[in-house]
Amino acid sequence: MSLRVVGPMVLLLLEYAFVLAVGPLLLSLGRRVKARSQGRTGSPLLQPYRDLWKLLGKGAIYSDTSSWLTRWAPAVSFAALLAAVPLIPWLVLPAPLGYVGDLIVLVGLLALSRFIVALAALDAGSTFGGMGSSRDMWMGALAEPVFLLVIFAFGGPAGSTQADVIAARGVALGLGYLSPPLLLAVVAYVLLLLVETGRLPVDNPATHLELTMVHEAQTLEYTGRDLALLEWGQGLKLALMLGLLAALAVPWGLATTWGLLFLLAALAVTSLKLLGGHLFVSGLETRLAKWRLFRVPDLTTLAVVLAFGSLALTYVVGGGA
Amino acid sequence: MSPPAQEGEETPLPPVGTRPPLPVDRNRPDRVEEERTLGALGAGPVTWLEGEGLWALSVDPERWPAICRCISEVMHHPLSTLFGEEAHGGIRLHALFLGHDPTPGVHVRCPLHPGVLSAPSLAATIPFVAPFEREVAEMFGVTFLGAMDRRPLLLHERHSAPPLRKGPPATPTGELEPYVFPPVEGEGVYEIPVGPVHAGVIEPGHFRFQAVGEEILDLEVRLGYTHKGTERLFEGQPVARGTLWAESISGDMSVAGGVAYAHAAERALDSRVPAVTEAARGLLLELERIAFLCGDVAGISLDVGYAVGAARANRLRERTYAGLRSLTGSRLGRAIVGVGGFRRPLVLGDPAELILTLRETSARIQALRDHLLDKSSVVDRLQGTGIIHRWTAELLHFLGPTARASGLRIDLRVDRPYGPYRDVEVHVPRGLQGDVQDRLTVKVDEVVEACRLSETFLGRLGQGIPPAPATPPPPGEPREGLGWVESPRGEFLVYLALAPDGTLGRVHVRDPSFLTWPAIEQAVRGNIVPDFPLCNKSLNLSYSGYDR
Q1: Which range of residues forms the domain containing residue B302?
Q2: What ipTM is given for this predicted complex?
């Protein structure tokens, strides 16, 4: 096989390894920031990996009233998230498998992951699962239209909804890429990210109060390797959302030429972007209380307004791409 | 320019915490009239209990509802507790109506007719009497005629005999008939059963919600999962050991439980406690209050998802517990209070250090309150959440900070001053609306007041208080005593009667949570399901205190 075939495959494997590894680290970093803000040391940075290892080594226990759905959902959800990884340029431009789908596919994959988990949470018939599913689907219904709008806001100037095309335009333009519509779209995306990944003003990942849970309530029925997949999935989703933000908002640093040195540099830059982005989100979380459940639409409304503003600036004021 | 306020016109209410005390209700009869009223009931001779400051009378079951109704509705004394006792070969009911200074209150006894295990229910008169009667019914096998709620209260299994009757200990014999929660019907109404095992590490309790979507229509709480039969464990024990069980009623109010029991026992034994011991008890009580209420502030902050505020409040709580530990050797102040004084010497290390801690706590908790109420995302969760109206709190006789946040001015330290509180002025903060924010601010104000009182009591101590056990009573005459303490959750009552041989005969403990638990059912109606934990934490009721 020629390098033209093997090269992208190796690169893709490298990207998968990077994304899978960085997800738990992001979760751990967020917990660290929160612990520090409360005057605690916090758990070691590698703790999530140890937890995953422990959970993966355990068998699974299923409720007698559950069906195949409960058994399959964690794998399907995880697979949907894995399938979304090549859609984002992590290290090089163009992304090795970037042509297989655009960001609308990514929204669909995230929705599939959310949907299957919500369905499985209803399966066992426990109250909390149902409650969590109801809330999660409601938030999903609020967040997905906004997600699409934000994608159009990012993609408008490039005339594409494909992440590596948008990023390539940014890299090509250099600092000229920065514009008021882009800033509006970035703010809208950050608000969306809080909803999509269940961060603090929307959902409290650290809570032990079953009646306030959203995502946690859906995973209450799971143990062992299934729980590991769901938790890893959370880290993966966080990495995806942050990775997309990094690619769309600050695409500089992605390698456009092949070479080990360029690759390593891109790896370092992308890691820094993800960690920096998550430090910002976690810092935001420590300063906010959880909002009352029915205040979530306020957040998505704001995101809609910002995304629309961005689109209007691009097409009406700016006269189009 | 606005015209000056006219004399006698209603001036706007000053902010929470600085309101003047309510004027004494002029319709309330004074002490002499009270005796006349009681005499006119024709219930028999009325005696005055000097130690307790209560009238005592004995009625037969036929007149029991009428007399209790008169005390509750004409004399305006709320029912504080109702319990049973097996003595002199029969069952006797006790009802305690604790009045507020200067009106005393009444202790009504009602011996049931020999061989008849039934009494008329008070349900038609006193809206919150059901839990009391349900408990007496299951613990003594007494049937209350006319009671609307006959479900068991604390027991989850059938027993070989009513557990509080004399005789061999009762053992579980099988299952009870299913416990029925009144259903709510309608389109889209569904039930949410929560507990008794919860996702967090908390005490067990079952909550049955009736909800539409996220809105709570109704909630019923079922407890009893931590019932330990503590009241029976007291029986036959020496008086001096009783403090240990009284402290275990609610572990986070150990000192309050111990002191309430000690007061009851000291009244039964006619034993006097020196002023310095009382001041030391006051210090421990107030330190416990500070730690407890700081914990409440932390809990409220944590339940709105603001962990930074929780960390700051928890630090204050732990510092106070550390102070309590250096004084007593126990973080919770366990096994230090004794009948007649203290069980062990109280170690007063460096009072200056304690004073510094108290002043810092007082300043920091106020700074934390300001910080929390400055954060829009926090205030949005607190305001208008879990409202308990003043008239609800009064009607159902809620106690402690819960009642005060709803605007009631009840505090035993002022209403029936005991021990060290007889010669200090206690400022009682109150809320206006009765929502979670009012409960938060009332609790913070109480911490500030407790810091001030602790410093006052600390000033009255010398260098260490030696233990002073009370003398055991001479066997013979029947003795009884009532003790009350304003615990961090409110009125804590202990009634004890000594057996002829001088050991404990019957001990009844009424934790404030027993009366205040229904507050959660009132608070959450119309709120959304995810706000329930916040309402619950703002009330912070004791499961163990209810179940005993």
Answers
A1: 230-547
A2: 0.84
